[in-house]
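Notebook p. 47: complex prediction with flavin-adenine dinucleotide.
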Amino acid sequence: MELKDVSDVIYDLGQAGLVIGRKILARSFADERRVEPELVSRLMGRLHPGRMQAEIAEVIQETESTRTLRLAPTDGPFAPFRAGQFINLFLTVDGVATSRPYTISSPPSRPGYIDITVRGMPDGFVSAYLLGQAKTGDRFDISGPAGFFYHEPLSDTNDLVFLAGGSGVTPFISIIRDALDMNRDIAMHLIYGSRIPEDIIFAEEIAGLACGDNNLKVDIVISEPPEDYQGMCGMLDTGVIRSLVGEVRGKTFYMCGPHAMYGLCQSSLDNLGVPPERVKRELSGPPPDITAVEGWPEKFKGNEQFKVKVEGKRNRFTVRCGEPLLNSLERNKVTIDSLCRSGECGLCRTRLLEGEVYMPPGATVRRSDLAFGYIHPCLSYPMSDITIRL
Ligand SMILES: Cc1cc2nc3c(=O)[nH]c(=O)nc-3n(C[C@H](O)[C@H](O)[C@H](O)COP(=O)(O)OP(=O)(O)OC[C@H]3O[C@@H](n4cnc5c(N)ncnc54)[C@H](O)[C@@H]3O)c2cc1C
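Predicted complex, structure tokens below:
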């Protein structure tokens, strides 16, 4: 052994000694320094509440098919959130206790309320209710803020490109409002795809902000333009993104919009050479037509019916295989906790005791869970009679 190696060993031993010494000190003072467990749980409850109570303080008609519901807290202030996060809204519609996630469209820089901006879906259940029947003064439970679709300065670059489709603009308007309110040092480029100009949500505000002396650039892309439309037309494909963004190096891309948009935008970004770690995508709920998703067993058309048995309950009920199991359960008065309703967060995790379900690629079930028969009912589709344990 050389002298240098010996001195390295002595140095390492010294460091180890320091660590052990600090541990002993920490242990002897532990009683005095202990943080009250109640304080910790109160703080955690404040930062990450399971539920918060909210009341509709104002309804703002944004477009013909879109409304913003301004929610005010009724039992103490709302938990803090990051621009881009969502809440889950719990409500009862036609006797069915259910929930849907909605992005917070207001920015954290404007405290005291949170906005959700809801677009009516054709044949939608909750969105139709929120557009048609919800009114000022109505009260709901909402979840604490959730999700990871925000600008993270520790890992993202400060040059951001937002690819929005339809109501997928909601997280971006929150991020943009927050960044401009707080003078954040980030460059933002919103590329907003809409079917027709009348469907553009926050149109006036976005146009106004785009003209301002700030770090925001906006491009609107219309896929079904009227005859006299002067602006950019098409889909958010490779050609459009390349022409609007130019050099992709150093940029972080964020995608939020309808299911169909993700495939197109992702392959476009792949074509342009954007590395995977520079692409973020928001969760998107169950696909509009599960039978069209890759891997769906061709022998099922989606209308086939199966029986569901919940362990410990007497009755079996009939469900359609093309509908997410969570929705079928709720319709049959079986409510389980849920948050993202997109197969990812795992809050609705349930054990499948018998039978088979189809889970599309978006369902991120842990491998060990799969091995022991756990499923995420929000993105599971029965393929046979099944028995589950809640
Ligand atoms: C993280 C996140 C953020 C979101 N943010 C917004 C937002 O800001 N604004 C907004 O407008 N929306 C947002 N959504 C979508 C929203 O949660 C709802 O999915 C949307 O409002 C439609 O709900 P609905 O009850 O009207 O439609 P549903 O009736 O739930 O239909 C939604 C989809 O669920 C499936 N489905 C449900 N019921 C059936 C059935 N009986 N048979 C077959 N399939 C069925 C279908 O695939 C259908 O396309 C967000 C979703 C997620 C995951």
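Notes: The chain has a mean pLDDT of 93. The pocket of flavin-adenine dinucleotide is lined by residues 86, 100-103, 117-119, 121, 124-128, 147, 167, 170, 282-288, 322-324, 327, 340-342 (CB under 6 Å).
Next step: compare against the earlier run before touching the bench.
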